[in-house]
Amino acid sequence: LSDYGVDRFYYFLENNDNYPEDRFDKYGLSLILGTREMRPVDIAKLYMGLANYGKVSNLKYTLAEDKPREYQQFSRGASYLTLDTLSKVVRPGNENLYSEQRPISWKTGTSYGMKDAWSVGVSPDYTVLVWLGNFNQKSIFSLSGVETAGNLLFKVFNIVDINSKTFEKPIDDLKEIEIDEKTGYRKFYDVESKKVLYPKDAKLLRISPYYKKIFVDEDDMEIDSRSPNFDKRKEKIVIEYPIEVSNYFFVNGVRENKNVKIAYPVQNLNIFVPKDFDGYKKVSMKLYNPNNEYVYWYLDEDYVGYSNEKEKFFELDIGKHKLTIVTESGAREEVKFNINKR
User: pTM for the complete prediction?
Assistant: First the structure.
């Protein structure tokens, strides 16, 4: 949103629901999270516009009314790709069993303090919006956009929309681009990639900010100009995520990693740390890392470094500890061990 512009996004919303408030600075970047007030009918209006391939119009309340004027707010290609993404949102309860037979693009929201919840969904024939709450602005702790409003939304669809039509792909408003497979940005470096659909007239997708070029020696270890082997250097492209992204992988990365393993300590090992003239020795942590992949190191859930080293040393207190490693792709492994001192 910072790149797109808070004011630009705010006035786009204002143009579509005639909201009188004109202080976009009141919301700031939180606007992208849904902090701006909108009526359910205005949300329905925008989602109906997506279902009509970007053509937005005011709602028509009776069949006898004339058809409201339409205007092209979103491109057809962007509308289709948005709907395709929203059709993959996990559904409540057993509805996931029917996601392929009944393709519905949908989204939910719950207000701060759980005072109300909404859910909106579209198919080629219907736009359905559900709002749940009360009129005294008190919290309802069992209220949830997914479990309550979402459940009711699909019950309505099961009544009114018995067809299983899908949105037609607007081929003439889409183009194929190549993105890097790991970060999803436009391919620039010589890395694994895949082809995806992209709106034909959209702004050029930027290249990934996470890749960087480094120099390595014959052993594939990173070096700089101070290294005596710098004249034999080779270029290598690696991913270096910012700490907030690596923390996300740390919390959510659950995929098994086949290439990098914690070699030492092993699970539930009791380690006795000897003392010498300089005090207690540091404890060695070793990885099996045949491809010299870069990994994020965490000790007792504290971030302690990012490197392709196969061994690190730590001063550890007596008691229980946990070592966790997370690869650039989010694969994660951890071991718990105990430290005793002699």
Answer: 0.64
